[in-house]
């Protein structure tokens, strides 16, 4: 039987990566993303999942904040939609975690790195085909790093190119990305066959536990419904915005057309009063609105001059 629980639902995501009793899963995930950094062997979850959050509370804290033996502060979160100002929010949050360490009497040198990892189901940077994006404070022309103390890592799941046939030998970050995308469609036996990682098998076990625990399953379904409702509201807002934009564009087009028609009518009338050849439709089509205004003004001046000479 397939697991049937998606880790891309925030309730399952935090239960899987934010439970002290499953810290090995958190450690493996962090080491997979921060592969070129000091290895983590111990984490302390600072906001552990206690299962008491309201299932439909929009203010529930469903990201994960931890610290490791190197003193680094590590935030993990997942986003299934791209909210306005997401880049700024990620920056603000990791900066808040960083400056929040400094208390009266402390020295700047005592500050420890603050690292944020955000799992995205949609690409924040569509122009990039990278699965993992690593943002730090760098000098733009030489790539000289000012500090590693502030880091934002994005895992853009829709850029994953690894298939089931190749995931076993893929990079750890790629294996996690594949698991996050497909866990709900896999059986526990398939998880053991596809992944060499005990931690990912343990993560699958956490998801299975949700499906087998009535209270957790109820909370999961409530969060799933909330997430779907939010996505539906976002799609509706996009559709309304597009429809409104088309309508306004048509109205602007009609208004411009009417204004152009008035200019053409004025020119034709002036040409008739002056007794000169009337411009053709093809000739009018070659002029923009500014040129039509200039032609009308010139004809008006000719008519005024003729009147003064009469």
What are the key terms here?
six-stranded mixed sheet, 310 residues, elongated, alpha/beta, single chain
Q: In one word, what is the shape?
A: elongated
Order of helices and strands: HHEEEHEEEHHHHHH
N-end to C-end Cα span:
99 Å
Q: Which sequence of strands runs across the widest sheet?
A: 1-2-3-4-6-5
What percent of the residues sit in helical stretches (DSSP H or I)? 40-55%
Total discrete domains = 2
From the helix content, strand content and strand pairing, which structural class follows? alpha/beta
**Count the strands?**
6
Contiguous runs where pLDDT drops below 50 for at least 5 residues: 53-59
The fraction of residues assigned to DSSP E strands is 5-15%
Our count of helices gives: 9
